[in-house]
Amino acid sequence: MTPTHSPRLLDRAQCLEADQGDPLRELAARFALPSGVIYLDGNSLGALPRHVPERVERAVREQWGTGLIRSWNDAGWIDAPRRAGASIARLIGARADEVIVADSTSINLYKLLSAALALRPDRRVILTESGNFPTDLYIAQGLLEQIDRGHRLVRTGRDRILKALDDQVAVLMLTQVDYRTGERFDLAEITAAAHRVGALVIWDLAHSAGAFQVDLGLAQADFAVGCGYKYLNGGPGAPAFAFVARDHHDGLRQPLTGWLGHAAPFAFEPDYQPASGVGRLLCGTPPVLSLTALEAALEVFDDAEAFGGLAALEAKAACLTDLFIERFEACCGESGLRLITPRDASKRGNQISLAADDPAQGYALMQALIDAGVIGDFRAPDILRFGFAPLYLSRVDVWDAVETLARLIETRAWDDPRWQRRKAVT
Amino acid sequence: MTPTHSPRLLDRAQCLEADQGDPLRELAARFALPSGVIYLDGNSLGALPRHVPERVERAVREQWGTGLIRSWNDAGWIDAPRRAGASIARLIGARADEVIVADSTSINLYKLLSAALALRPDRRVILTESGNFPTDLYIAQGLLEQIDRGHRLVRTGRDRILKALDDQVAVLMLTQVDYRTGERFDLAEITAAAHRVGALVIWDLAHSAGAFQVDLGLAQADFAVGCGYKYLNGGPGAPAFAFVARDHHDGLRQPLTGWLGHAAPFAFEPDYQPASGVGRLLCGTPPVLSLTALEAALEVFDDAEAFGGLAALEAKAACLTDLFIERFEACCGESGLRLITPRDASKRGNQISLAADDPAQGYALMQALIDAGVIGDFRAPDILRFGFAPLYLSRVDVWDAVETLARLIETRAWDDPRWQRRKAVT
Predict the structure, then answer these.
(1) Which residue does chain B place closest to A422, by CA atoms?
(2) Domain identity same for B227 and B336
(3) Of A41, A59, A146, the CB nearest to B114
(4) Could you give the ipTM of this predicted complex?
(5) Is the dihedral of CA B79, B82, B88, B93 positive or negative?
(6) Interacting residues of B49 by C-beta distance below 8 A, sequence separation 6+
(7) Nearest chain B CA: its distance from A1 CA (Å)
(8) From A223, A229, A324, A392, the catalytic residue
């Protein structure tokens, strides 16, 4: 089976030429990447947009240092969660008032899972995929243990989700892109199937938002959460987002009822009254410096509009990942590595994963790659994972990355004891 | 009744002289405060330590921009919650492994309240003070509504807490310093009383940590939460901290079971297994830029050790607040303002609050004060609140602040329509 999208590039010069003809290359100039590095880990931590340091510095020196407490109003800190939410809404097919930035993905998932169960009081099943990202599973476990009302977390294989949907399912909780294999669920199809049995759906868009086109509105999605620090480039541990469809706003009840989710936080009333809409998902005071970086980073996506927006970014990512597969198969024949990501670009995220026949070799190989300036990551037990952020990667980057990979395989880099001991990176 | 601690300062020159003889004045040089401002709101948002911008900039440009994903290990991001927790532990009489930095005060309270109820399964009462900070009340309400097992939140007056303690109380939840009046609970006395009836205690140290001496170990305290952005100067929305006494580590179960609180986050196991000790209070990925600012800001307290540490800071705050009371009573006779903070410095936090007979006048007066460069805050319905951070305030600041207050009262600043309409500041 051949790659699905892209014209074949036969040598490095053709890659260079194609890059030069690519209007999206202008966006790469907005990122500060170190020289000598090919960064294939933007799905773990997005690269630094060049304008962000100055914005953070201003938040520190001017807004905090000089504005002090006045900056909550004067610099607009208090509205930042809603502003950043509205920016993200545009990237995921949501309305501005359906998304808010708050806390972490895990905590937002806890809020929405609790809220969704409350909307289906007669049902007792949270359905999910066995291989969902662990924090999603852990959060569901923690919630169910706490409420202790006979709910069950049912985990099933990826291909059995549709069959497992029935009228006992209160909530279907899925991550759209599998963090290991890169497989992508059809969000609209699965949402519709869940709705047919009366179940709600919570999508984890950690590896989707900013990576490719997502249309929550078209899919009539209920709830979603996602991450600020991967393809949105919001910086390490950037606050996360939560989406709630307008239809669910009025009935929404979530348990982390902190003061900033109150209808009138500064009235200091003794009883909780929820703010309207997604505002009630706020809890405590947001980490303003981290939020400033995220809000600034999102501006890159405004610029991307002029170049075709997420449709163009998705096509570029398909081209990059196609090229990686093609080159991997051409150059890394006897590698002990197997492609585990779908070959059809519409069925994968912006990611390629290779499983290692020998996990220890695979681990060492990734350390050697990182040392050689090709930064991907290793996911236990046996996966070399590469993310392809179309905002800042080029075809030549991909070409060179696979050349390096091939060279390290050729020289059996895993035999070098330097690569066998390093601590795993997130 | 006269102030309790300090020699009387009869004029501005005596204040200047006393300031010059005060070894703590060297610490003030570590803060970047704008000229023309007397900042009496460090209890809402602490001032910016001068070395923090550079540290944040390094985290952005070098650690994020150049180090990228590698910085989780190479720059030590992954251990920052424990490192910052250990720094805070020294300020509150805790052991290094009893404190961790995570999420917000509200979310940490939710975790610990849930954990504490699980440790007292046969009891059904959370006891608190009617006037506790609203987010604490809201969080308890949200938790009890969610678990729905017949618990009650019992709220009582500040002076009736000890009487309300009985063998139905699972948890006593109190904020040590009242955010409106500045009254301070005797932490050790109340903890002992709660323990006598078998109740656990959760202390909210939002206005205590970094403000005066707190000794959780001596008091044999169970749990505490607190804020990174007030007297700890961690920056707007800095992450918060949580304390769990070692005795409770093994049995601790909290519901926000995110991956970073797992015993082996990077093993990606399908089932949650808690990390040891306070590590299990971690949930999602921490906001590294905000956490960097907090961690750096805490270094100021290391320097303060050479000048007598928190004991000296507490004495200085007593001196500043005594002086404020004395000058207020000397200069602001017919003000329509009443002192509602205890005159005994050992019974208050580093705070003075004045209640306005006419709330609208009081509100306008605070806006006029802020405009005149004396920054306090207004707390609904009728309180002018002033915080006295001993790290960066001087006696002359206090003298001048009250002079300004007196002038604005004298000229009936509240009649100026400019001050009657501005939005309330946090």
Answers:
(1) B73
(2) no
(3) A146
(4) 0.96
(5) negative
(6) B30, B31, B32, B233, B296, B297, B299, B300
(7) 32
(8) A229
